[in-house]
Write a structure and sequence with these properties.
about 475 residues; 33 strands
Length: about 475
Amino acid sequence: MAASSNTKTLLMTLTAALALSACGGGSDNVASPGEGAFPPPPSSTPPPTTPPPTTPPPTTPPPTAAECPTGTTDVGEVAGLTNCQLPSRIIGELLLPQVDGLVYSVNGRTDVGEDMGGDAANPAPQARKGTLRIEPGVTVFGSAGADFLMVNRGSQIFAEGDAANPIVFTSRQSVEGTTDVDSIGQWGGLVLLGRAAISTCPGTAQPGTATCEAQVEGANGYYGGNANDDNTGVLKYVRVMHSGFEVLPDVELNGITLAGLGSGTTVEYVQVHNSSDDGFEWFGGTVNAKYLVGTGNDDDTFDTDSGYRGGIQFGLILQRAGGGDRMNEMSSQDLPYRSMPNLANVTFVGAGHDNAIVLNQGTLVGYYNAVVTGGAPACVEFQSDTTDGVFHSTYLSCDVPFAGGASGREAAAFNAGTNNATGASTLTGGFINGANEAAVPAYAGLASVNAAFADVDYIGAVKDAGDTWWQGWTCGLTADDC
């Protein structure tokens, strides 16, 4: 509310108080200003020479509604909360502070900055940078499938919540409290674009050069370039809910799209819940991620493409009964620059919708300290001669472990590893290691696989009941509380 409105409110309050007093209203122990204007009856006691004390008028105005911060626009209310809409393009810095009684929204495509090109040392001269900073506890929502937030190459987002106050990107229906366990595809999602190497180069361009770039799925933005250490910002203690949108047939927005992100970007303690498409999809890049949770997503939860060469440690996937596809789908261009992701300490709990891990083409993926259960019928499937897998300290619990049977390529790759086993799942609480999982020796030397990995003495994402990294900031893991 503007300052002029506060002044007007105060004047109206004082005027109303004077009018009430003139009519004899007010507290019984406060003398009316009209007393003494009429002579007392003959038998009355003369009035006192000193007037009784009066209650002073209020010195502060009544409380006002939450005010939208600079750079956003008040567009009314949603569920009794002031709705502050982000601009369609953020240039310079925009801060979204946490304010009680206030919620933020995106309307249509919302850009952070302008595309600065794939050459980190020589950004496009006319392009302008944007930086979006979001405080812990903030909620940002979209109202339709075409509402999404995109951070362009050269710009940054700093969404840093904490375990008690995560930052939530969600749908209008979620803010209004009308979603349920099968609510998906109610707004677009997050699209983060960077300048790290990708495989989908145009013409004769080579991976890792400024001219090797591609248009991101579902949006008119470009990713890729020559900076493997590129920094698109921070996502930490962030939850993305009820997202995903089919822009065209087979062209869709995911919960979070991570396209060409460099190793300077931080992605930790992030959940995607109930996306209508993939939960997390990596298109190339070298970004590492830790403590990822995917719940209820309708397509693949971890999907890698276009030459992704980063690492994921501590990943937890739970499919919902009403939907889901593969828990991992890995694909890329064929040789020579194929995807080479490594996953460590991951637990995948399927609901029997498809094979759990499907490796398409152009991918060499490593699984370390992994627990896979609930694939139907198989845990692992290789679909191309240009894809392969490395397995160490991995426990498979599906109807059958390998789509190709005991003599197939999947079985050969699994048997070539160390400390691998198959058997019945003994997970407790849905995803916490039980006796069979705890019996598998952990892989020694994760730091040699990826410098961002931490060595641990257990497999899976959650060691035991005392391992609570997922508590407080996620939803849907132990109850339908989303």
